[in-house]
Design goal:
By secondary structure, the protein is of the alpha/beta class. Helix content is 40%, strand content 15%.
Length: 524
């Protein structure tokens, strides 16, 4: 599909296993500085069998009690970790019907356990299983890991959990290489035709679960997961889209909320178009921050003032979009692919030097490093294999969660607005409705402020320079939740816990370890 849409709220793991890019990018390209796991002290890896405490299962609705009381077998896997599959209904309106399995991974507490901490890294479409496997030991402090079993899971529709399946790897390469002029009637018609064909393949290959990968259903799965790990309250760490999943859970199960950290907050009251606008402006802001830093460093390929440096990037993007360039491996790099590579390092300022290298090469005529960045973001390895279904899950979940503007005139008006808000990237955020116009299932949710009447305080974390979830969204979510505290990190990049400073770490850890939220509006 043409990636002209609201861009993914990138997973914190971002396929966080250590990956090295070729050539000038032969460095670790982990968005959050993650390293491969294997050194955890927790867990003998021997596996275990668990069944929910009868009192927990009895509190569940009668029609769902068999899911809440199921016996779960945790088996040794992934080097000293434990894996399990948890059964949930495909359709919560018909719990006696078909079921699917949610894949979960556990890193056992290294000390005296006080509960489980369930983790969602973002997306939508990010793998919590991979996050715990690849990043649990580095992104979550040793103090928290001593007290909690870290439990990562792939939400329904994601990777190992009844995954949304659409195209072969070759077809994905071909799709990403296509170039559409969406401002023209012919280009828009071509994109819609291709998206319609892809949607039909998604429906055929995925099956009935495609109608039920929405966030409300995923939040109900989360409550079953809470029960089968034997917790009366949900302890939860959600990044990015994971904050939306968390706030949805809090609205559905307010009495089940324990200690909940929502980092890189999504404002559930915003429409898809409002989210798109916020991201477009935030990414433009992030580009300016990057350019200012680049110009202050030696070896920056940009020149002059921040304005002129941004204009040089803008001119480069427009040039590639008008005339796609061939990479060293023979693949064509379109404007969309180029922008996908351009934005990836903006999620973590530690990776800004990678963007400098890629821009330097592109300005000299070689788009290959930028394509490698785009490949990393698309979870495509150097052999051409795609290691996740995140792009398809992202689209399927969003088409159910958000009504989309699909009228061509309205989409063109949105394009003009986005170009004003983000002169460098605005066009590439436009036409999101093309992805859902012919989707086989219509949206089932109307965006609205979240309501949380629970007694347990929730911790919301925002980052001032966050390009994917603007810091204003964190403040909005904190107000909607009511019983919540806001911690703000003055930094660049997406999300804060695990990649920022001791102030954020102490605030989050203190809350998870004691249940006491830090002072509201804490600035870090």
């Amino acid at each position: 599909m043409k990636p002209a849409r609201r861009l993914p709220l990138r997973s914190r793991s971002g396929s966080a296993a250590a990956k090295a890019a070729a050539g000038t990018l032969a460095v670790l390209l982990a968005l959050t500085g993650c390293t491969l796991l294997g050194q955890s002290d927790g867990g003998s890896g021997g596996g275990s069998t668990g069944k929910a405490d009868p009192s927990i299962a009895e509190a569940a609705p009668e029609e769902l009690r068999s899911f809440y009381s199921q016996e779960v077998s945790w088996t040794s896997c992934e080097d000293k970790l434990e894996c399990a599959k948890i059964k949930v209904p495909v359709d919560y309106a018909k719990p006696a019907g078909d079921s699917i399995e949610i894949a979960a991974l556990k890193m056992k507490a290294t000390g005296k356990k006080t509960g489980s901490l369930l983790v969602n890294p973002g997306g939508p479409g990010g793998s919590g299983y991979d996050f715990v496997k690849d990043a649990g030991a580095t992104n979550v402090s040793s103090e928290v890991r001593a007290r909690y079993d870290l439990v990562g899971f792939d939400p329904r529709g994601v990777k190992r959990s009844a995954p949304v399946t659409c195209l072969t790897d070759q077809e994905r390469d071909e799709s990403r290489a296509k170039n559409y002029d969406l401002s023209s009637d012919a280009g828009l018609a071509a994109a819609l035709a291709d998206n319609k064909a892809t949607a039909a393949k998604c429906a055929e290959k995925t099956g009935p679960v495609l109608a039920h990968v929405d966030t409300v259903s995923a939040a109900k799965d989360l409550d079953i997961l809470r029960a089968v790990v034997n917790d009366t309250k949900l302890n939860y760490l959600g990044y990015s889209y994971g904050t939306f999943l968390g706030s949805t859970y809090a609205s559905l199960f307010p009495d089940h909320v324990g200690r909940m950290v929502l980092d890189g907050a999504l404002d559930p009251s915003l429409s898809n178009e409002e989210l798109t606008s916020g991201q477009a402006r935030a990414f433009e802001k992030a580009i300016r921050a990057y350019v200012a830093k680049c110009l202050a460093d030696s070896g920056c390929p940009l020149t002059g003032t921040v304005d002129s440096g941004v204009q040089q990037i803008r001119d480069l993007v427009e040039s590639v979009d008008a005339s796609p360039r061939r990479a060293q491996d023979g693949r064509m790099v379109t404007g969309s692919a180029f922008v996908s590579g351009l934005i990836l390092p903006l999620y973590n300022d530690d990776n800004w030097p990678l963007l400098t290298q890629a821009l330097d090469a592109a300005l000299k005529g070689d788009p290959s490093p930028m394509l490698r960045l785009a490949d990393f973001g698309a979870d495509r390895d150097p052999s051409g294999k795609y290691t996740s279904n995140s792009a398809f899950a992202f689209n399927a979940i969003n088409c159910l969660d958000y009504p989309m503007v699909t009228d061509p005139a309205a989409m063109r008006a949105e394009e003009q607005k986005l170009r004003q808000e983000s002169p460098t990237l605005g066009y590439f955020f436009a036409y999101g409705g093309t992805n859902c116009q012919d989707w086989p299932y219509k949206s089932i949710r109307t965006p609205a402020p979240v309501e949380y009447p629970g007694s347990a305080p929730i911790l919301v974390v925002g980052t001032t320079g966050d390009p994917a979830t603007p810091v204003e969204w964190a403040g909005a979510l904190r107000k909607q939740l009511g019983n919540a505290s806001l911690v703000t990190w003055k930094g660049e990049g997406h999300t804060a816990y695990g990649r920022s400073n001791s102030c954020v770490t102490d605030a989050v850890d203190g809350y998870l370890l004691t249940g006491e939220a830090p002072a509201d509006n804490t600035q870090c």
